[in-house]
Amino acid sequence: MVKIKASKLRDVELITDTGIRLGWVYDLSFDEETGDLLVIVAEPDEDLDTSEFVTDHEGLLLIPISAVKSIGEVIIIDSSKLAVKSKLRRLRTVKERVQSP
């Protein structure tokens, strides 16, 4: 296993496996209790329409760590695992239907 320091990831470009430039690593978010890495917080590319992506209150992208395919000079993100608002809305709708009497 190759170890990478978090400080080396700052400003590394994020690109989907379909070639969409998402932005650059801004920060990392961890679970306080377990220490597990949860998401990459990214400064979005200026040409990226962020309206369908999950963002924080500052407009930074929240990329789930499970979507990372590879890390090198750039970070490749699996677009099928990328959290987008339309997927979350569908999941909530399905969950609501299942839970309603």
From TrEMBL:
InterPro entries: PRC-brl_dom (IPR027275), PRC_barrel-like_sf (IPR011033)
Domain (PRC-barrel): residue spans on this chain: 1-82
One Pfam family linked to the record: PRC
Name under which the protein is recorded: PRC-barrel domain-containing protein
Organism the protein comes from: Thermococcus barophilus (strain DSM 11836 / MP)
